[in-house]
Amino acid sequence: PIPGVYLSKSDGERLKELMGQGAVRAKIVAKSKTEKVTTHNVIGTLPGVSDEWIVIGSHHDGPWASAVEDASGIAMVLAQAKYWSQVPQEERPHNLLFLLTSGHMAGGVGCQAFVNDNAELIDRIVLEIHLEHTARECRGEDGRLIPTDQPEIRWWWVSKITELEDVVEDAIQVEDLRRSLLLPPDALGGRPTTDGGHFHLAGVPIVQRANSGL
């Protein structure tokens, strides 16, 4: 791995200015600690009336204490759990599994472990819905981020299943979710860039959303 550090926009502009003047020698000291730890996925379930499952997930870790990544994703999953818990079991056509995974910042190891460890369940998952990063668009002004009244652009990765694509498109229009982009799962590589991309690689149909520009 190549060590790296975050720079503010103003520090980055200053660094580019110095580099533009010719050869520059600099020293960056980054104090960090690496250790092995145990982290956990958090799982909740609601029974339905069949042996098929729908998974609704997000990741619960982030690079810092962040409302967007991914406290907002956790909030969306919890909202789904609250809603469906109020629907009688006989009206829930599928079992529901609410999955908050760990290790997103370590290559999505929490989601990958869940997929690898639950092969029998994976075969009975008819849809995985992943909810990440809901945010307002911000603009830079005098070194500060100023929220606007617009949402960040919403990316929706949807499996190439015509009926599923139509349902998602109709829902976006009915709910007036402007600034939404429908993308095939492989639009930005071999899988969506969400933490739930491992479900796509395992052949599970998906609807996964995240905001761009974070």
TrEMBL record:
Coiled coil: none
Stored Pfam families: Peptidase_M28
Domain Peptidase M28: 41-174
Gene3D superfamilies: 3.50.30.30, Zn peptidases
Stated name of the protein: Peptidase M28 domain-containing protein
Organism the protein comes from: marine sediment metagenome
